[in-house]
Amino acid sequence: MADYNYSHFQHLYFILTGIPGLEQKYYWMAFPLGVVYIIALSGNGIIISTIKSESSLHIPMYYFLCMLALADMGLALCTLPSMLGIFWFNYKFIAFDACLVQMYFIHTFSAIESGVLVAMAFDRVVAIWNPLRYSTILTNGVVYRTGAVILTRAACVVFPVPFLIKRLPFYRANTLSHSFCLHQDVMHLACASTHVNSLYGLIAVIFTKGSDSLSILLSYVFILWTVMAIASGEGRLKALNTCISHICAVLIFYVPLIGVSVIHRFGTQLSPLTHALLANAYLLVPPVLNPIVYTVKTKEIRRKITQAFVQTKVTAEC
């Protein structure tokens, strides 16, 4: 009878962990953390508003960039309440159900971003392989349907994850390793077999991040093969230069993701500080760096943003 009761027991809340060993410096870290979130939200918001307001940017390349910015904003907003709660107010508690909700949206937006990166890779393939048919292959309808497929896939694949966690008993440790809820982190605290969770998590990762990374890799193999067929060296460099921003976005997203996945499965002997820093980089680096990369490398966006700021300044002076 006792075992039956234990098997259906769950904590009312989890305790989040900030950055181990730096608890006394949270007060000083609160300001730069707030700046990071301001950069992430305002940077992606500026890109979205710029693309929306400028008709010259209403082409598939920038539609996909807008989707990427939306996914980055979603990732930032998912972690903002718990991160600021810890570093600004030293509030480390999160309700069990709230943890599941946060977990769902973090993994969903992460899967959306991965899917958008694949769509952007396909966009570059079409633009380099057959630029004359670019507008006929990637029509607005194709772009909208692609976005709908990316969103539906992410939402459906991650949907079972909170319910698989909900069925597990939790009656021992309730301290998480991060400042937010991740499936692997919560799963390790369960007091029962987690084989089903591990198996489904592996399948979900293979179906989303695994297939997406392979698709991106094959896309760039095809791009390189196409570029090498260009006669002039200047033409090859010009074609490859259009891919630099996307390559940076892929590295910014996948390098921290691979690091977090590896340490969760094989890095149990690593210090908690390493776990915390990699997890924070996984969720904070892409929303912060992607707007900077695309603003610096995309002259159309840079020009429109500059014009908007100049116009605002002139209006204010008048």
TrEMBL record:
GO terms for biological process: cellular response to lipid. Residues 43-294 form the G-protein coupled receptors family 1 profile domain. Gene3D superfamilies: Rhodopsin 7-helix transmembrane proteins (1.20.1070.10). The chain crosses the membrane at residues 26-49, 61-89, 101-122, 142-165, 213-231, 243-264, 276-296. GO terms for cellular component: plasma membrane. It is a multi-pass membrane protein. Pfam families: 7tm_4. The keyword Transmembrane helix applies. Its main location: membrane. InterPro entries: GPCR_Rhodpsn (IPR000276), GPCR_Rhodpsn_7TM (IPR017452), Olfact_rcpt (IPR000725), OR51/52/56-like (IPR050402). It is found in: Membrane. Keywords: G-protein coupled receptor, Membrane, Olfaction, Receptor, Sensory transduction, Transducer, Transmembrane, Transmembrane helix. This is G-protein coupled receptors family 1 profile domain-containing protein. The lineage of its organism: Eukaryota, Metazoa, Chordata, Craniata, Vertebrata.
